[in-house]
């Protein structure tokens, strides 16, 4: 599959055929999709289009709930929750919109849970955990790069000897290893491979 013009925010699926990532459109997936103009509308009250996504807002006196709906609640409005709240048997409780967030000490704002340091995140052996606000993602370990092979994304070893990103001496040979490389001085030279004399 080759796409002569490329697929900016998508994948090449066949001869000049792009499959766009969510939130993007166009022949080369280079245009932002305006989700606010879709039917049915994605937001109950107000919608703002953003690059590759959108945001929902509620009218005054309403609060955005974790499911994206707007709930009218005078008592919720008075509590002044950061994201939204619920009333259970007359008690008002603030909510956080993601499992990667928890209520802060003030009971109104949400603070991030670092899934990487708490061990809640599980990344495969050749990926490392990167914490984000409310979530995390798994990034390729150093010396590996993300490539689309045999129908899925995998972390593939970077051959530093071929990409010329090694720091071997002029009189040394570069040997690729999984996730790294080694330098070995050529015959007639001695040293670490980074320095050869």
From TrEMBL:
GO terms (BP aspect): cell adhesion; cell differentiation
InterPro entries (UniProt xref): EGF (IPR000742), EGF-like_Ca-bd_dom (IPR001881), EGF-type_Asp/Asn_hydroxyl_site (IPR000152), EGF_Ca-bd_CS (IPR018097), Growth_fac_rcpt_cys_sf (IPR009030), Nephronectin_domain (IPR052235), NOTCH1_EGF-like (IPR049883)
PROSITE patterns: ASX_HYDROXYL, EGF_2, EGF_3, EGF_CA
Keywords associated with the record: Calcium, Cell adhesion, Developmental protein, Differentiation, Disulfide bond, EGF-like domain, Extracellular matrix, Repeat, Secreted, Signal
One GO MF term attached to the UniProt entry: calcium ion binding
Domain EGF-like: 32-71, 112-150, 157-195
Main location: secreted
Family: Belongs to the nephronectin family.
Protein name: EGFL6 protein
Species assigned in the record: Acrocephalus arundinaceus
Lineage of the species this protein comes from: Eukaryota, Metazoa, Chordata, Craniata, Vertebrata
Gene that produces this protein: Egfl6_0
